[in-house]
Each structure stands twice: as C-alpha cells, then as structure tokens.
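User: Please fill in residues for this 660-position structure.
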C-alpha cells in the first residue's frame, strides 16, 4: 500500500527506516520546511516532497497518511486527511483534549476509515511478556500499581524542544505507561487526586505552557489504583525512567520500560509469594518492534476490508485521562474520566496468558501434529536433603518456566505441589507438567497408583504428559510417595532392587504391555498425552507401530557429545517432540575449548550456548539446578540463536564412544 509521511522531524526518520522493511511504500513527504521534506523524500527512495498538505492530498492518491507532525498539530492534520477520505496513523497524542480526540474517532467511523495512533507499545515483546505473567494468576488480584514517565530535561536531548514544552510530560511521556495500563485493565474511571508542580532547573522557559512535573492517582473501573508520576524535571537517566510495577495480593511484577521496543533479558522482574524478586527473561531472541509496525498493521486491516480504529479509541481514552489529570490538579479534587469511548479498550478479560497445555492424545492425528512446548523446561531432578530444591523451584516459577519435568524417582513432587498451591504460583492452565513413573511400577495396578500418587502430591487432576522413565521394568519393592523423605537406605532399597549378585531384579512386563496400561491412563483422564524416556530408536519404532495412542514426547539424554541425531530426526518427522535431559552435565562439556569459543563469540555463557544448541535443533532442554541464578540464566538461553557455523562446531563434538 502506498502512503505519505506528513512531518519530517527526527521521529520521521525512524518511521522511514522501518517502512523500508514493510509492505508500505512511501510515495510522498510533507513538511513546512522544504529542506526537511526533501531530505526525508530522498531517504525513502526519492518520494515527491511537498510543503502544503492540501496540495499533497490533491496531487497524490495515497490511501494512507502517517501523521508525524508536532504534538499540537496532530489533530488538525488528522482531521484534514480524514475529510479527504484517507486512512490515518498518527503519532501520539491523538489530540490535546478529549472532545477533539473523540470527534476524530467518530469522523473516521462515519467515513468507514481506519484510524490508528501511537504508541502501540503494549504490542512489543517486553510488554506482551509482562502481560502474560501478570494475567496467569501468579499475582492474584492486582489492586495497586505505580507508573513513572521521567521524560527528562527535554532541552538537553532534543534540538527542537518547543513542541514538548508546549504540551508537557503528560501528553508526551505519560502516554506510554497509560497506553499499557489501558490495554491491560481497560478504562480509567476517575482521577482521585493530582498535583502539578512548576519546577525547572533554572528559569522557566518562555515557551513552556504546560506543567513540567505531574503526579496523579488514577482509579480504573475494573483494575487497580495507579500512582502516576511524569516529569520534565526528573532526569531521564535517574533510577526510574518509564517503569511500571504491579502489586497483587500474591506477588509483584516490575516492567522496567513501558516504552521499550524490544525485550531485554532483565526487562521484567517477578516476585511470587514470600520469595525474593527474580528476573523473568523473555524466552525468545531479542527483536525490535519498529515504529513502522503501527502503520503497517493499520494498512493490513484496510486490505482485509476491516479498517480498524481500536488503537485510536485507546489513544482517545488516554487523552481523556490526561485532560482529567490536569483538571484534578486545578480543582484539587476527584475528576471523572469521560470521553464517550469507554468500550472496547482492552482489559484483563480480553486477553490472558497463553495456555501451554497440549491437545489430548486422541486429538493428535497420527502423531503428525506436534504439541506446543516452551523452548526450555526445568528439570526437577533427584536432589536429596532439606532445602536443596525449593529455592530453585520457586525462582523457576517466578522466572517464567512453563514446563516442569517431574518424576516419582525424584521424590520431590510434593515440594512442587506445595509451591503450586501457595500464593504466587501461576494458574494450572499456563503450565506443562511432565510426570514419570519409576521402572518398579510398570505392573498392573502399580502404574495407575503411581500416577495417582504423583498427581496427589502435585495437587493437580491430570498430567499434560506422563512418560515411562525407562522402557524396561524392575521388580516392585514398595510405594514411592514422598521418596525424598525416607532414609537414604530405604530409598535405594525401593528404587534399585538387586539380587545377591548386585544385579537389578527385573520384572516380566514388556514395553508393549506396559504401554497398554499407559494408554488406559489417558482414557481415564489422568494424563492428556503419553511419552517415553531413555529409549532407543528400534524400541521406539516398535512401540509406535504397536501403540493405539502413540507417544507425543520422547525424552533422552542429549548434548553435543551425544546428540542422538537419528532418533531426533525420526521423531521430528513424525511430530513427536524431543526433550533433552542432562543437557549440561556431561563431564568436561562446559569447559571444552569449542564450547567456550562458541559461547564467547555469541556473548553468552557455555551453559547458555549448549542449551541454545538444543533449542536451535528443535529440542527442549530441561536443565536441572539448585541455584536461583542458574535457573534464570538457563531459561534466558532461549534468547540466543547460534548461527549455522556455531551450530556445526558444536555438532562436531559428537563422540560415538561417549559414556558416563
């Protein structure tokens, strides 16, 4: 779609650069300053430059205008373009008063035109990640939030500050946290209190016509009370820039920058229950949402014959909030927020956490539809003794792990169950729980009791996947519930039955027979899918051929020394997900020169490089740790994408003779 850029200031350059990578084509530019209009036109491959908007609209048939003029000119330019039957995407703010903003939205609706407005920061990765965590139940009811927009001393960082000084930090900076909050919680009902402070570093600028520092308390109709501070006086390099902190009954969430275009590793911090705050890294590689994404997204709605005005409605409400804040500061009392656009603004009911539960086994069509899993999971592993697992498990929950690998043998399912039942835990629907019966419980009756016992310890109704820990069976020597609570000698007796020669005492349960009992667990609703661990490719092939409900997941030991490439490729060709246990524990792996070199080149730790290698091959690693910091860094490894050369170097470590 062709478009025109109106306004050729510094922000226009950022839009122009992003539009080169979008489906939009800039054919015209316009600015009152002829030199700037021509410079911008040359930047976008010789578009036609204009100095008069009416002339541009008369000469060009572009369907979309991107309004990048100064703050005070936005409304007039948008109105002119709408009256010329052009779709418009405007920089923020949409207008400087609520009535004008609402009129623009109505004008667009009356003419069947699309109208969008920045910022669409709620769609960037950091904000979306924060919302997912904020809406998955871990915070409980969010009753209070604090938001900051310290724009800073604009005359120090902008060469043309007059437009900023004319509108103040509310309409320039506060729109970022307000847009996120309105997208998350819906409309603001009233401004409870507000104060405007005329504070400047030195003399008041002659062109300043708005208060440089504003504080307000906002009350959402269906959300928290929010303490908002926005300032031209407080330096933008201070501890708080555009931060937002949500306080719920069960936890807190801190988003470092509501205006961020990308999700940095430490962008979000979560505290659940009585635990210390933990960084919750965004589990994908860093990507920046360009300014041009807004106009491009608006153009898509036009091409689908469904011209959107959603972001403009949200922007109009934000304008009404800013207007009410200034009124409350003048009137020293509560002021209702009224703009006639109170519906369809967003809010908790419109979007929740992305569920990670898989389809049931019967919904997996011939094993061709691979189930959705997070890129990295948390291996609960077998740690003995009090206090070994809980700190890392709690940190893993707060960091945002979605897949938890549990097992009867580990003896700590009850620990995870206690955490899931306590304040600060996410909703069950946002987690993927993988359970495993021990090889002494493959027999009739024992397998079902093992599954039910594990579910009882976890406090859930069903597993997302229940996987045989090993394909072969050993003799039953007793129940394994809360195994880690038993004396070590009794643990060993029950889990590793041996004969007089010290060899394992095997049970006469074939893999196919045991699998039939596993299939009955699906039919009884105790697990949604099935899996098998530590299996060879011939064993797996025979099992898939014989099974009524084939495995949806295979878990194997996998790392660069033992990649098991044939098995992985066989599974992927059939839609079977592969999970890698023990991805970091091979002796000498993390100190291998090749691993250290690849990690250094990628700017990550050796552990992160190895985990990224698994993720890059479509395998889900489940590293285990008892350290909070390692839990965070392991999850953050999903942010790293190794290039083909680095992947090949790690592939080259494969050792057919590897043994532990």
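Assistant: Residues filled in for all 660 positions:
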């Amino acid at each position: 779609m062709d478009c025109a850029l109106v306004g050729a200031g510094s922000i226009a350059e950022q839009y122009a650069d992003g539009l080169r990578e979008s489906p939009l084509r800039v054919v015209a530019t316009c600015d009152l300053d002829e030199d700037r209009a021509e410079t911008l036109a040359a930047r976008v491959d010789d578009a036609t430059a204009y100095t008069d908007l009416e002339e541009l609209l008369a000469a060009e048939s572009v369907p979309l205008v991107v309004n990048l003029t100064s703050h005070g000119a936005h409304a007039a330019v948008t109105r002119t373009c709408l009256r010329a039957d052009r779709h418009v995407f405007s920089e923020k703010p949409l207008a400087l008063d609520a009535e004008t903003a609402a009129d623009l939205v109505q004008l667009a609706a009356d003419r069947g035109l699309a109208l969008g407005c920045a910022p669409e920061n709620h769609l960037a990765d950091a904000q979306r990640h924060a919302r997912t965590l904020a809406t998955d139940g871990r915070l409980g009811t969010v009753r209070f939030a604090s938001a900051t927009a310290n724009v800073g001393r604009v005359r120090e960082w902008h060469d043309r500050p007059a437009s900023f000084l004319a509108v103040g930090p509310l309409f320039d900076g506060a729109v970022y946290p307000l847009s996120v909050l309105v997208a998350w919680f819906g409309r603001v009902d009233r401004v409870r209190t507000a104060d405007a402070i005329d504070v400047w570093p030195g003399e008041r600028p002659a062109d300043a016509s708005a208060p440089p520092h504003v504080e307000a308390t906002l009350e959402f109709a269906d959300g928290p009370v929010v303490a908002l501070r926005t300032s031209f006086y407080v330096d933008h390099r201070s501890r708080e820039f555009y931060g937002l902190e949500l306080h719920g009954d069960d936890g807190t969430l801190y988003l470092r920058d509501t205006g961020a275009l990308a999700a940095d590793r430490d962008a979000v911090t979560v505290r659940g229950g009585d635990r210390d705050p933990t960084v919750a890294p965004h589990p994908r590689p860093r990507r920046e949402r360009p300014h041009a994404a807004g106009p491009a997204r608006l153009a898509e709605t036009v091409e689908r014959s469904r011209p959107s005005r959603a972001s403009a409605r949200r922007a109009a409400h934000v304008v009404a909030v800013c207007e009410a804040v200034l009124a409350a500061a003048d009137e020293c009392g509560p002021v209702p927020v009224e703009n006639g656009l109170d519906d369809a603004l967003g809010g908790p009911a419109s979007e929740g956490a992305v569920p990670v539960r898989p389809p049931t086994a019967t919904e997996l069509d011939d094993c061709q539809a691979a189930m959705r899993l997070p890129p990295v999971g948390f291996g609960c592993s077998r740690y003995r003794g009090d206090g070994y697992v809980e700190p890392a498990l709690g940190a893993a929950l707060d960091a945002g792990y979605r897949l938890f690998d549990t097992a009867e043998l580990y003896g700590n399912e009850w620990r995870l169950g206690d955490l899931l039942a306590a304040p600060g835990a996410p909703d069950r629907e946002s987690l993927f729980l993988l359970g495993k019966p021990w090889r002494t419980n493959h027999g009739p009756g024992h397998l079902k009791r093992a599954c039910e016992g594990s579910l009882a310890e976890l406090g859930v109704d069903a597993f997302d996947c229940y996987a045989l820990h090993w394909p072969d069976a050993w003799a039953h020597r007793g129940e394994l519930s809360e195994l880690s609570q038993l004396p070590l000698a009794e643990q060993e007796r029950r889990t590793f039955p041996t004969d007089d020669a010290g060899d394992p005492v095997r049970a006469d349960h074939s893999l196919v027979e045991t699998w039939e009992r596993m299939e009955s667990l699906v039919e009884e609703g105790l697990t949604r899918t099935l899996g098998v661990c530590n299996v060879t490719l011939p064993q797996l092939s025979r099992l898939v051929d014989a099974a009524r409900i084939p495995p949806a997941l295979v878990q194997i030991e996998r790392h660069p020394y033992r990649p098991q490439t044939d098995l992985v490729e066989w599974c992927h060709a059939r839609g079977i997900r592969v999970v890698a246990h023990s991805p970091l524990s091979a002796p000498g792996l993390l100190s291998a020169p090749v691993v250290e070199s690849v990690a250094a080149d990628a700017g990550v730790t050796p552990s992160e490089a190895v985990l990224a290698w698994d993720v890059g091959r479509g395998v889900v690693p489940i590293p285990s740790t008892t350290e909070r910091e390692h839990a965070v860094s392991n999850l953050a490894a999903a942010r790293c994408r190794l290039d083909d050369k680095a992947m090949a170097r790690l592939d080259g470590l494969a050792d057919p003779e590897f043994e532990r």
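For context: The chain has 21 helices and 23 strands.
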